[in-house]
């Protein structure tokens, strides 16, 4: 399965399909497949687990995009409202996530959302700077945390 992915990628990066490119791509894809299985620990079982997560990942990306748009609107309102005085704050919380990947995804999602930035993350403990106190309220129970927990549960099945 991974072999076919590498072969397709090789052909796509060449920009056109010819039999020469195909025949050159076969040993290149085989070498990449061997390297991935031998040194990176990939297996068909692991790949299947990733494919099962794709709907959840797509849902998460849509939620992330919606939250980024909502945060953009809120920050723009704050910038153009001269009567609103921002109250920056630092918020510390424990994510409750069980994987390093989940914690990294949460840290990046917080940073991608305008008005907040992850200052520090260690063992699931986060320190987040928010442009305003309102942006930091409920961050430990945010939609990001809930969706990442769902993705982690899917990975354990």
Characterization of the model:
The protein is of the alpha+beta class and 157 residues long. It has two domains: 2-39, no CATH class; 53-156, no CATH class. It contains six helices and three strands, in the order αααβαββαα. A three-stranded antiparallel sheet has the order 1-3-2. The longest helix has 37 residues, at 44-80. It is elongated and about 65 Å long. The two termini are 21 Å apart.
Key attributes of the depicted protein:
about 65% helix; three-stranded antiparallel β-sheet; about 10% strand; alpha+beta; 3 strands; single chain; 6 helices; about 160 residues
Sequence-ordered SSE layout with sheet pairings:
Blueprint: H1 2-14, H2 19-39, H3 44-80, E1 89-94, H4 100-112, E2 116-122, E3 125-130, H5 133-136, H6 143-156
Antiparallel strand pairs: 1-3, 2-3
Strand order of the largest sheet: 1-3-2
Low-confidence stretches: none
Oligomer: single chain
The share of residues in helices is: 55-70%
Secondary structural class = alpha+beta
Strand content: 5-15%
Radius of gyration: 21 Å
Please give the alpha-carbon distance between the first and last residues.
21 Å
Q: What is the N-to-C order of secondary-structure elements (H for helix, E for strand)?
A: HHHEHEEHH
Shape: elongated
Please summarize the sheet with the most strands: 3 strands, antiparallel
Mean pLDDT: 90
């Amino acid at each position: 399965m991974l072999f076919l992915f590498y072969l397709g990628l090789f052909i796509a990066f060449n920009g056109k399909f010819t039999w020469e490119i195909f025949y050159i791509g076969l040993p290149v894809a085989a070498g990449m497949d061997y390297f991935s299985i031998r040194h990176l620990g990939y297996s068909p079982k692991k790949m299947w687990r990733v494919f099962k997560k794709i709907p959840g990942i797509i849902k998460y990306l849509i939620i992330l995009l919606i939250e980024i748009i909502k945060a953009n609107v809120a920050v723009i309102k704050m910038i153009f409202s001269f009567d609103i005085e921002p109250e920056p704050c630092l918020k510390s919380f424990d994510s409750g996530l069980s994987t390093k990947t989940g914690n990294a995804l949460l840290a990046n999602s917080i940073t991608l959302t305008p008005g907040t930035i992850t200052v520090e993350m260690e063992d699931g403990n986060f320190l987040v700077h928010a442009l305003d106190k309102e942006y930091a309220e409920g961050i430990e129970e945010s939609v990001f945390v809930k969706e990442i927990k769902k993705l982690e549960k899917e990975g354990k099945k």
